[in-house]
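Structure, all three chains, one model.
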Amino acid sequence: MKKKPTRIPNTIQETASWIQDQLGASPDIILRAYSAEGAGAERVVLVYIDSLVDNDTVNSKIVRPIQELSEEAFERFDERGLYALMKDRILGVGSIAEIDTFDHVIQSLLEGNTIILVDGYQTALAAQTAGGDERGVEEPTSQTVIRGPKEGFTENIKTNMSLLRRRIKSPKLRFVQQKIGEVTQTSVVIVYLDGIANQKIVKEITRRLSTIDTDSILESGYIEEFIQDRTYTPFPTLQNSERPDGIAAGILEGQIAIIVDGTPFVLLAPVTFNRFFQSSEDYYQRFDIASFLRLIRYGSFLASMLLPSLYIAITTFHQEMIPTTLLISLAAQREGTPFPAIVEAFIMEITFEVLREAGVRMPRAIGSAISIVGALVLGQAAVQAGLVSAAMVIVVSFTAIANFVIPSMNMAAASRLIRFGLMILGGTFGLFGIMSGLMFMLIHMAGLRSFGIPYLLPVSPLSINNLKDVFIRAPWWRMSKRPTLVSEPEAETRQGKSQKPEPPNTDPAHEGDRG
Amino acid sequence: MMKATEKITALQATALLMLAIMPTGLLYLPAIVTKIAAQDAWISVLVSLLLGLGLAFYIGYLTLQNPGMSFIRWIESRLGRIAALIIGLFLTKYYVSVSAVALQEFSTFIADEILQRTPVFIIVSIVMIVVLYAVYHGLETIARVTLIVFFLNVVLTFIGLLLLGKDLHFAYLLPVGEKPVPVILKGSISPFIWLTEVAVLLIIGPFLNKKQYLMRTSVTGVLLAGTWNVLLVMLAILIFGPKLVQLVAYPSFAVVSLVEIGNFLERLEIVFISLWITTMYVKIALFMFAASHCLNDLFRIENKLPIQLGLGLFTLMTALYSWDNTADFSEFMRLAGPPHLFLANIAIPLLLGIALWFMKRTAHRRGEQNDG
Amino acid sequence: MTGKMVRIALVLALAIITAGCWDRKELNELAITSATGFDVQDNQWIISYQVIIPSSISSGMGGAGSSSGHSPVTVYSTKGRTIREAVAHSLLESPRRLYFAHNRVMVVSERAAKKGLSPILDVYFRQPDSRETVNMLVTKGSPKRILEQLMPSSRISGQGIQEIISLQSENGSLLPAVKIYEYGSSIVGDARSALLPEILVSGSPDVTTTEQTNKTSQPSKLRLGQLAIMKEDKLVGWLNHRESLGVAFITNKVNTVNIAFSCEESGDKNSTFELLRSKTKVEPKQGDGGGFTISIAVDAYGTLEETECPLDLHKPEVIAGLEKQLAKEIEGSIRAALLASRRHKSDVLGFASVIHRKFPKQWEAVKDEWDDLFPMVEMETKVSVTIERVGVSNKSFKELESPEGE
């Protein structure tokens, strides 16, 4: 597949025509030749792709200095001298690379660099001028928080790296770049803290990334599917986030981030089940409310997964559990409805999923209006028309709302899928079916690993130390250990012990009184 | 997923032992023991706990002799292929039939209590699918699931005890010690038989990641299970009185069904049954794992799945077609159960211990002779 | 490998769904019973059911509900040689399956009670859907009549009966609420006796239509009556309220109760005492002759609620006098209970288990002739009452009324 790299030929004409040949006659490819006045022979050629470069930089830092070059310079220097002059004096760009093969030239051009060719010299200069129109750093649209940084990753990998660098000013922060995608040549960067991230896992991730053989990577989702531990599972084994603070926190705990050029969603691995219920805000709020909210999230996950199936199982198998008064009103509601409870539930659930998908796809301006109207009209009208019972509408709506509480979208998606399976089990075998289904799920989760880390880690196998950040969030000064297995064993200690804040023994206010 | 070196922690092993004993005992123990010892049943169970602890010490000691090989290989290396073959096959048979019995008890219970009209075949198949899925994942996964199930059940038990507080009649326990000692001892036989299932440690012991905790695991496992049994029997007596307990088929759950909090929280037994279902899964999964592990090890089979599927199907059929009705089944349990468990869980470890001791002695003597 | 498992699971799942749902019972297929009646006639069980009609109690939209005019319950009965046969016969006339899990109350006719209730107990302990916490009541007439009676305050009268009996047992202590498992455990206990409260329709004609409940006053209503003595599972006699209060004291089942007593040694002036806490200690003793004596010590605490006597309640000696009068009253009811149970030769006082627990060896010897021995058991009573509060007025109104009052 790979051919032998060909060197740049001697003459710039040859090179220039080869480049034009390779890239086709795109209007955005700019080729500018400079020659000494009168002499006619072109001595220097600039090549760049207009749509990829930052025009300001190219014009002011490269084009103008070359144009301002005196006539005599062109005449006085031979190709070697001219090349050195270009490299050392003229180009006002920080990052300059010397390249000498055609492949590099093309790739460099496609990355937004400006190529400077000097006639008769077999090495070209690639000045870093990448730019062009890009989205700036904005507030992330997913995973919004009330308290906490409002920056989000962007599509630009450089910006994203800088966002992380700025948060972790440690020499140990490592960025390892790889190009993946035969055609797209997407930059993929692994980020980790040397000495804290488990070296074995870093190696494993690098290995898995390097085995990817595909033509294109357009989003981190591609990478996720290529490197995850198991495909046939509803549970995500990699985390993704738009939030630099969340990713930085992960890196500090020993996780490894994977940034993919072209998407604001950065991957984080390895992950355990509980991580999908942590929001970065948990760590910025007071620990009591954070713990409470976290419990609410676990509850919502269970509700979102189980509620319809429990409702079906209890109303069609275990009516003895329902308080008599409630049973009577449920029975009265069911009096007029034609379908069995499970069919009713399926109708409502599918209706909701359709509404939800429509809400996402519809143009934003009408989206919310239509989905509200749809829900209201469908819900209310369906009950009044006697198609479904009112209780079922309540159950399905609460399930839907509960689903949005889970901070991580891919975990929320898992619960949505499992819900349907459990509904079938609950409708055929009652609670026995549901428990069997849950048991199956539990076994599945217990057997799951994310890059060698057991998925249910701090709970089973049990690690008491790390339970401080699972169901509750302990105060910061109490969480002195990093997650085991995820981080290097030597780097387990995160912070000093006994940092519990206490007021000074002498109260300054009283001292003032006394004084 | 099939890893060569699976490791479980001491805590997980303890929970495994406890859940190997608890789930089926929960169903039948109160009725069986109160039938014999009436209000003194709890003393019987306490006695069985002491006996069980003795056995636990012995099993722990025996497992400690194992340098870390899997059980069958260890026997083979010490006592030869023939002995390994006999013991291995017998244990495979034993664990298959214990699984079948547990499966039968499980499905009978489900059919009795919640799904009266669903064909038993379907119930058993569902259970088997889940169990095989667990066995396929291996002991490590089973152990992890066990730990979670264990914690859930501990929490729920405490809640149950709190809710039942006001229905307890301590007078039902009086007079203490009315039954003569032989009766009490007779009553302690069947809870002790349950506790002998600690012998499964011989199989799962080598998987322990820290060998120094083996003894502790064995003893705590039995202690937990035994204490649980005592609590359970006491609770049943305290609520129903020694007579009524015998009438109710599943007193442990009938007990919970009495809970009435306000007018809205009642008939909670289904919640407790649901959680108990998970423990039952763990128990059957553990025994099925033990069976397939023995067989695989005995014949050094690399691809474990076919054996597991085959054993699963065999167990399923055994559970379905061995017994015509519950009377037939309880007759079987009364006549064949105790000797069977006794043979596998006490006689074999004892013989093994004697054989090992004898080998050691002859080896020692030979060593002396060689020296001399 | 996983793929294969998934495929197998998929096939099984499909099989389950297509074949499935053996035990499913939709809510609108159930006839939810709120009360059942058991009667015996010509060796046949007549079982009556009070079935709730949900749509007449709460409307489908969950709105204001109670579309009056429709009866909230329907009552019907079926016959059969056994209880379950009778229940099965209901399928001949009812479009819905009877569902007993929400059954709160079970009314047994006197006839059935005299024949023995063990078949009912057997059914209740055998069937998983019936709850063991159902309340048992006896009626002298037909149980069906009780079930047909409507209540204006509680639309489902089965629930209403349950509320009456549990309220009475918690705040009145005259009649105990007996749940079926409690009945079961006392009937198999050492004394082999149990008590069941009576329910009756007082007045006539019966209130059986919703039009009648719309009136402010009903010609007849359900009320609790006496206490039935069950001995060896058969009804042998009745206890009046005074006797049943005595039984409650002896068996330490008194919660709160209002006791009216005369506040003077003689005379017809009365007061009322609200007993708030009471504890009874029962201690058996064996005399030299082998006969048993039971000593009963009652400690009761409560509030004075009402008095007609002109008393100065500031004075300790006045209170002490009242306490003495009260103790006499309670002792009287305890004595009455003993006499009644002797009369019926039925150990409803639970002396058998008291003796069994204290003297297990001696009990072995006497347990077979306990029925004959029981009436010979002596009883010593010691009642101490403490009036802790006298309410928010310190003197009786009577005292202020009298001319010499301050």
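Chain C touches chain B at residues 1, 5, 8-9, 12, 16, 19, 22-23, 101, 125, 128, 131-133, 181, 184-185, 188-189, 353, 356-358, 360 (CB under 8 Å).
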